Structures are given as C-alpha cells and as structure tokens.
Amino acid sequence: MSLYPGVLFAGNEQHAWGVEVPDVPSGFSASETMSEALELHFEGLVADGDPLPQLQVVDAHAANPEYAGGVWAPLDFDVTLSLGKSMRFNATLPEYLSSCIEDCVRSQPDQKGHSGFLVRAVFRALQQS
Which of 18, 29, 66, 123 could form a disulfide with 37 if both were Cys (CB 3.0 to 4.6 A apart)? Predict the structure, then answer.
C-alpha cells in the first residue's frame, strides 16, 4: 500500500465531494470512490508506458493556493493492483534475508506473503530512484 497525500473538498447540495491527489497528474476525482479513480488512473499510466508518480510529503503541496480550503488526508491505495498481471519468477536470496522476510511476513499479515513483501520493497525502491 502507498499513502498518497490527498486534499478533500467538501460537497454541498449541488456538488459531490471532491478529492485531489497532487502527486498524481490529473488526479482529481468526484467519483464514487477515490480508490476506483486512482486504480483506473494508474492502469492508464501503465498502459501508456508513463512513469508512476513519485510520492511527496504534504508540505510539498500545502502552500499551493489551488488546495486552499481543502482538508489533507493520507489516501491508502494499493498501486500494485493496477500494474498488470502477476508473473512468476525464481529468486535466490541469502538464507539470512529469506529468514528476515519470513519473520516480517509472519508478524505483518498485510504483507501477503513473500511475494507481497518483495513487490512492496521493489516498488518503494523504484519510487526512490
């Protein structure tokens, strides 16, 4: 999962609630769910061969007048669901690292096994490069 900073804009009788994700180009949505909008957006980026957006801290966006009057919130979104079909591959790791991964997976069920752990680690490494 990735925590994207999002800014929420209150709706009223004429307008739906709005959510904007500054780190995601064209990341504005007034759809039923933000997760659905983000998933479709990331699928489009992958299909077009565009780079995935880099996460930034809220402070990088908070001073922007476009977001005045909004409420900031972390949006938890599993980007990996939008990256295409999973592929199986074999990997060889030192026993110590394999043991560390096993301990982490056992103590943190949200890792979804060894594969989930590796997917998140690779994704974080790519975001930092």
Answer: 29
